[in-house]
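Hey,
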Amino acid sequence: MNMKLIVVLMLILATVNAKAAERPFSVSIGTSTNAYNSFLRVDPDSISPGTDIDLEDELSLDSNLQYAFLKLDYKFNDYHKLSMTYSPYSRSSSAVIERDIQFGNDTYLAGASIEAESKNTIYDIEYGYQLSDDDEEQFELIAGIYYLRSEYTLISEGVIDVAGTGERFIDNYFRKESANVPVPLIGFRYQTPFYDDWYFTGSLRYFTSNLNDVDSEVRTAFTSIEYMPSKAWSAGLSLYYFETDVRQDTNKFNGKFSWRYTGLNAFVRFNF
C-alpha cells in the first residue's frame, strides 16, 4: 500500500468526532546513544545471492553511534493522536577486507581497501487511539509506518571483478546502493504515574509483511521515565530496542539488510 495513502487514512481516522484537546501540540528534541549490529547483502540478481556483510566487523563501521532526533505530536482530542519522529544519522569507516565479497554484480577480492559510508533516515509515523480520557493513566493502541531510507557507498582500491569483466586492480572504484522501505507497525503504549510528577511509559510494536516485493519483519520495545512538573514541558530518559529484517527484490534495490540496536535517549518535550 502506498505510504501517502496510509497517512491520509490515519488523518481521516484521527479527525472522526474530533474535539480539540488542551495543549494539542508537542515538540520533543533529544539525543540518542546506540549500540548497533547490522548486516547488508546486495544481490547481483533475484536468483543469485550476494555476500552477507557484517558492517561493523568487516567494514569497521562504528558499532556505537550518537545522533539527535525530533518528535512532533498532535492530539486531536482526548482519544486520537498523530506523531512523527525524525532521526537522521550516518556512519563512515575504512577497512581492508579479509575475504572475497560479492556486492551486487561486483566482486571485491580479499585485501582490497574499502572506504564505506552508511546514511540512514528514519520517519516513524504513528497513529494512537487512547482507550480512555484519563490524563494520568493511559492505555493506547497504536498503528503506523516505520519508513526507512538507507544509502550505502563503497569507495575501493584493490583487485575487483566489475560485473564479470575479469579481475583487475582498480583505484578509487565507486559503488552506491540505496533502499526505501515502508514498514507497517502495530502495538500498544501504557503510561502511568508512579511518584508525584514522575511517569512511567512502556510500549511494544511488531509487524511482518510482504508488500510490493518487500518482505519485512520489525520489532520495537520502548520504556521511559519522564518528569512532568507542568503541562507546558517535561523531560526524561528512555531505553529503546529496534530489530528489523528486510528482503527487497525491486529494480531499485535487490538484496537484504538487518539492523539490531539498543539506544539510550535523553529528551525534553514542550507542549503548546
